[in-house]
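Practice problem 4.
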């Protein structure tokens, strides 16, 4: 079966940066599973998966626009520490969950100077070229329940 919208795809991957340092990998753990056409993986990878089938392997490099987007300076803010819950225990590199105009958002504290805290709402991989090494394990039609729930059930997917 070829990967088409509505297909469940189960695959192994290794993601590296430009220096070939591993950012993330499913090797040695469960593969990743998603429903094609639902926007559950980065857009460039989802597009590259279209038409592939179980047993296919490929490598692809995605520019930021096809991955987690370009780094947007508009997503960086400086706020007073006392406006952040737990402001007395903040550290650089800490992730915070905030409520934004599009719902819950994760931001990272990138700098603390006195009472001023710089937070970055960009995805940590924004602005990076992503290098994927992909091996597709399985392709099958999504079940009605998976389509209704919006995610894959079973191995590599969600467990209820």
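Answer key:
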């Amino acid at each position: 079966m070829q990967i088409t919208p509505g297909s469940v795809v189960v695959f192994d991957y290794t993601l590296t940066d430009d220096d070939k340092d591993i950012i993330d990998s499913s090797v040695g753990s469960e593969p990743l599973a998603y429903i094609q056409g639902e926007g559950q993986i980065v857009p460039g990878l989802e597009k590259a998966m279209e038409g592939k089938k179980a047993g296919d392997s490929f490598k692809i490099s995605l520019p930021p626009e096809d991955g987690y987007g370009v780094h947007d300076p508009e997503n960086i803010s400086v706020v007073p520490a006392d406006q952040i819950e737990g402001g007395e225990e903040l550290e650089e590199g800490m992730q915070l969950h905030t409520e934004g105009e599009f719902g819950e958002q994760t931001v990272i504290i990138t700098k603390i100077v006195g009472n001023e805290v710089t937070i970055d709402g960009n995805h940590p991989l924004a602005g990076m070229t992503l290098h994927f090494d992909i091996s597709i394990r399985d392709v099958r039609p999504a079940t009605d329940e998976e389509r209704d729930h919006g995610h894959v059930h079973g191995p590599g997917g969600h467990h209820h």
